[in-house]
Specification:
The protein contains eight helices and no strands. It is mainly alpha-helical. The chain is globular, with a radius of gyration of 27 Å.
Length: 272
C-alpha cells in the first residue's frame, strides 16, 4: 500500500501538463491569423506547383527561351503608345471621371513607392546584411517581378495621362511629361524583356564557380579569393558587371523620369 501512493501522486502533474497543453493547443487552433496563414500557404504552394508545371511545358520554353515573344511584346507596346499619341477628339480634362483619377494616382504612387523601396531600402539593406550568395538568390526572385510590375504601372500611368490630356499635347509642359513617361516605360520594358534573363543566368554561373571555390559568403563586399586568377570566372564577372550596371543605369533614368512627373503633379494638385 505504501508503494502505491507515491506512484499515484506522480501521475497528477502529468495530467495537469497534458491539460494545459491541450488548452493551449485549442487556443492556437482558434487563432485567426494562424488559420489565414495556413490558407495563404496552401494557395501559394498550389500556385507554385502550377507554375512548375507551366515551366516544364513547351509554351514556357517558347515564351521565355526565345526572343520572338519579347520582340512581339515590344512592337505591340510601341504601337499602343503611338496610337495613344495620335490626335483624336475626346473629353477635356474637366470631364475626367474620379475612377480614372484613382487609377492614375494609384498606379503612379505604387510605381514611385516600388522604385524607392527596391533601390534605396531593400537593395542596400540586404546587401549589407546577408551573404552575397543569399543576396544574389534574392535578386533572382525580385528582379523579374520588380521590372515587370514597374513596366505595367508606368504603362497604366502613361495611358491614363494621354487619355486625359489628349487635347493638350501641343503644350510644351505636357509634351515633356509624355516624353519622360514614355521613356520610363520603354526602359523598364526593355530591361525586363532583354536584360533580366541574361543577368539571372550570369548570377547562377557566378554562384556555381564561387560555391566550388568556397567563396561568396562575405557580407557587404566582393572578394573573389582564388577565383581572381581564374580567367573564365573573371570573364563571367565582367559580363555580369556590364549587364548589372546597364540595368542600374536604366533604373536610375526611369526613377528620374518618375521624379520629374512627381514634380509636375506637385504643381498641379492643390492639397490645402
Amino acid at each position: 500500500m505504501c508503494v502505491g501512493r507515491p506512484i499515484e501522486q506522480c501521475f497528477h502533474p502529468a495530467l495537469e501538463i497534458r491539460h494545459i497543453e491541450t488548452k493551449f493547443e485549442n487556443v492556437f487552433k482558434e487563432d485567426v491569423l494562424a488559420i489565414s496563414t495556413q490558407y495563404t500557404k496552401d494557395v501559394m504552394f498550389g500556385l507554385a506547383d502550377q507554375m512548375d508545371k507551366f515551366q516544364k511545358s513547351a509554351c514556357y520554353k517558347i515564351l521565355f527561351h526565345t526572343t520572338q515573344p519579347a520582340h512581339l511584346i515590344t512592337a505591340l507596346s510601341v504601337l499602343t503608345v503611338a496610337c495613344l499619341l495620335l490626335p483624336k477628339s475626346g473629353k477635356s480634362p474637366q470631364d475626367v471621371s474620379s475612377l480614372w483619377s484613382l487609377i492614375y494616382l494609384g498606379s503612379f504612387s505604387m510605381h514611385l513607392g516600388a522604385q524607392i523601396w527596391m533601390t534605396f531600402v531593400s537593395g542596400l539593406s540586404l546587401y549589407f546584411s546577408i551573404p552575397r550568395h543569399t543576396f544574389g538568390c534574392v535578386q533572382k526572385v525580385l528582379f523579374p517581378k520588380y521590372f515587370l510590375l514597374n513596366a505595367i504601372l508606368s504603362f497604366i500611368t502613361l495611358t491614363v495621362f494621354l487619355k486625359t490630356h489628349n487635347l493638350h499635347k501641343g503644350n510644351v509642359e505636357t509634351l515633356t511629361q509624355v516624353i519622360s513617361m514614355t521613356l520610363c516605360f520603354m526602359i523598364e520594358l526593355v530591361i525586363r524583356l532583354y536584360l533580366t534573363s541574361p543577368l539571372l543566368k550570369l548570377i547562377s554561373g557566378k554562384n556555381k564557380f564561387e560555391k566550388d571555390a568556397g567563396v561568396g559568403m562575405e557580407v557587404g563586399k566582393f572578394n573573389p579569393g582564388i577565383l581572381l586568377h581564374n580567367n573564365e570566372y573573371m570573364k563571367l564577372h565582367k559580363s555580369f558587371r556590364k549587364v548589372h550596371m546597364t540595368i542600374a543605369l536604366g533604373n536610375i533614368i526611369a526613377m528620374a523620369c518618375t521624379m520629374l512627373h512627381l514634380y509636375y503633379l506637385s504643381q498641379k494638385i492643390i492639397i490645402l
